[in-house]
Amino acid sequence: MRTNTRLLAVTVLAGILAVPLGAAAETAAHEHTDKRQMHSEQAKSARGQRLDCRAMPQRDRTTVGCKWTAEKRPDFGAYRLMRQERSQRQAQVVFETRDRNRLHAIDEGVQRERDYVYFLEVRDIHGGVIGVSNPVRVSTRTRSEPAAAPLPARPPLPETPEPPALPAAPKVPGAPGVPATPGAPELPNLPEPPSLPALPALPSLPGL
Question: Could you tell me which CATH number the domain at 46-139 has?
Answer without folding.
Answer: 2.60.40.10
